[in-house]
Amino acid sequence: MAVAAIQLPPACPPPPAPGGTDTAKAQAVATLLPSNIPENAPEHCPGTESTQAGLAPGCAGCPNQEACSTAPKGPDPDLAIVRERLKDVKHKVLVLSGKGGVGKSTVSAMLGWALSEGEEGENDTGLMDVDICGPSLPLLFGMQGQRMHSTSAGILPLSITSSLSLVSIGFLLPSSDSAVIWRGPKKNGLIKQFLKDVDWGHLENLVIDTPPGTSDEHLSVVQYLAAAGGVDGAVIVTTPQEVALQDVRKELDFCRKVDVPVLGVVENMSGFVCPSCGGESDIFVPSTGGADELAREWGIEVLGQVPLDPRIGKSGDYGQSFLEEYPESPASVAYRRIVGRIKEKLHAKSATLLA
């Protein structure tokens, strides 16, 4: 079967040539344009699939306004394609955080490594990176600079191991320094493309790494996955201090409002483990009770508390599995317990639906 490099028009601008001016050397800006935004549309176009197509204030003066306003606004036909594409995906898990910098992508990577372990073919796991403006998973798996390809069956996810694969916008950018400056419709279009055009195949788990917050990416993922049986559960990542917890409460409120069941919360950076002596100490003080108090307030489970270990950052920078490199670390032990509990809850379908 012929394999071709994936092309999403229009292409991102190439990196500036060496030796140019400071302006020419500025970071390349990703300008991929999903097909639901006409090329001659104004800046604030809501997209042809929106119920506001042709009616929104930003549509005034657009040459497509009449066509958009009179076009049928029925169910999105692509939802049926998403459902068919994901019919062989058993569990779909979101990794969420209200605050950036709490280690959400690192937790996603650890889940990917651990969930995919075991006999070949039994625990096949896919990772979908929808942190469009800050994709970290290509670096954490040592795959920066690689490119996705497509066949007649669809876009091929990149293989990390024989049982773990990854899709990320990071594989579509001209360089790891390229900025993605998009409004909501463009982000939604790419997320839909990852779900309907990627040849995921048979998967035990699909782990979706989302950006911080509760915005377009989260709404799009939940909407599209609803057509494929819905999200099986969300893993909420926080750190112990209140500045993180206050945003996690917003994330939990989001899950309640869109009916996403919560598997539980992971308290990351919960203390520090010295790799030399094994001693532990608190770096971020849980002044309001940390994840334990949060879980009590919301009636959810603390899946585990992961201590800081400086070797986690080192392993991520080198694209290595921390779990394999340092299995004796208290952080590795915590992660394996967390994954064990997630597996139990997925198989029992016992995630908490917040009332």
Describe the structure.
This protein is α/β, with parallel strands linked by helices. It has two domains: 49-78, no CATH class; 86-348, 3-Layer(aba) Sandwich (Rossmann fold), CATH 3.40.50.300. It has helices spanning 65-70, 78-85, 104-115, 137-140, 184-197, 216-226, 242-257, 290-298, 310-317, 322-325, 330-348; strands spanning 4-5, 29-30, 89-96, 125-129, 149-151, 154-156, 158-161, 164-168, 179-180, 203-209, 233-238, 262-267, 272-273, 280-281, 302-305. The strands form four sheets. Strands 7-8-4-10-3-11-12-15 form an eight-stranded mixed sheet, with helices on both faces. Helix 3 (104-115) packs across helix 11, helix 5 (184-197) runs parallel beside helix 6 (216-226) and helix 7 runs parallel beside helix 8. The N and C termini lie far apart (50 Å).
What would the keywords be for this entry?
355 residues; alpha/beta; Rossmann fold; 2 domains; 8-stranded mixed β-sheet; 3-stranded antiparallel β-sheet; 17% strand; metal-binding; ATP-binding; hydrolase
CATH class of the largest domain: Alpha Beta
Straight-line N-to-C gap: 50 Å
In total, the number of domains comes to 2
Percent helix:
25-40%
State Rg: 21 Å
Portion in beta strands: 15-25%
Number of helical segments with 4 or more residues: 11
**Proper CATH architecture of the largest domain:** 3-Layer(aba) Sandwich
Q: Mind summarizing the main beta sheet? A: 8 strands, mixed
Q: Give the CATH H-level superfamily of the largest domain.
A: P-loop containing nucleotide triphosphate hydrolases
- Shape descriptor: globular
Keywords: 4Fe-4S, ATP-binding, Cytoplasm, Hydrolase, Iron, Iron-sulfur, Metal-binding, Nucleotide-binding
Protein name: BY PROTMAP: gi|472581015|gb|EMS18776.1| cytosolic Fe-S cluster assembling factor NBP35 [Rhodosporidium toruloides NP11] gi|647402740|emb|CDR48956.1| RHTO0S21e02454g1_1 [Rhodosporidium toruloides]
Binding site for ATP: 98-105
Subcellular location: Cytoplasm
